Inverse folding.
């Protein structure tokens, strides 16, 4: 109870700090969920630049892939060879990329005040908030669902006390999720959404007003 009150208080505090028109925008929540993923240049938040952002809505049991959001983001520095090997995004691919602020503005319009979900969502939100705070005046106020946490609960119920493998490939295999190519923001957002729906069908989803 105290934890929920604290989380509600944190959301309200962030909402009060938001600049307009964002305060009104992030107040809008139709009850659907948004699966989100970012591809970045580094796993260290302070060094990471956003290369691409994707988001897809879940309405009830329906995954709205045709209405998904995707944006390539122009980094300040061209991706190095290691980034190219991981993401498959070459410097020339960013010729039509958006400035980060414009990409975020479009993302904000897409997500509104809906609850966000993802795989290791904390990292994606930390990177997004690094760029969002100067625009919004505060961190994103959305509630969040960590898919790996619900997967852990599901597996632990069958194997109490056992080590639970939370690797992406293991989760997809055990949940019988199609293996889409990794390190593609849209594919990863779609897969995380399918994981969540598979867990929800097994009774390990979350309330429609979850707490981060």
């Amino acid at each position: 109870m105290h934890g929920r009150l604290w989380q509600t208080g944190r959301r309200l505090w962030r909402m009060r700090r938001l600049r307009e028109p964002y305060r009104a925008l992030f107040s809008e929540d139709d009850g659907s969920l948004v699966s989100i993923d970012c591809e970045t240049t580094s796993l260290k938040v302070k060094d990471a630049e956003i290369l691409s952002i994707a988001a897809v809505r879940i309405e009830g049991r329906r995954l709205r892939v045709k209405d998904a959001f995707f944006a390539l983001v122009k980094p300040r520095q061209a991706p190095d060879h290691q980034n190219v090997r991981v993401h498959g995004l070459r410097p020339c691919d960013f010729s039509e990329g958006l400035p980060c602020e414009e990409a975020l503005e479009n993302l904000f319009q897409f997500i509104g005040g809906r609850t966000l979900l993802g795989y290791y969502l904390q990292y994606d939100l930390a990177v997004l908030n690094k760029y969002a705070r100067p625009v919004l005046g505060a961190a994103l106020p959305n509630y969040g669902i960590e898919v790996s946490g619900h997967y852990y609960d599901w597996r632990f119920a069958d194997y109490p006390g056992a080590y639970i493998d939370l690797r992406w490939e293991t989760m997809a295999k055990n949940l019988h999720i199609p293996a889409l190519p990794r390190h593609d923001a849209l594919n990863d957002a779609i897969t995380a959404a399918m994981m969540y729906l598979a867990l929800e069908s097994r009774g390990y989803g979350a309330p429609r007003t979850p707490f981060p």
Notes: The first helix runs from residue 2 to 17. The mean pLDDT is 88. The first strand starts at residue 33 and ends at 40. The CA atoms of residues 133 and 139 lie 5 Å apart.
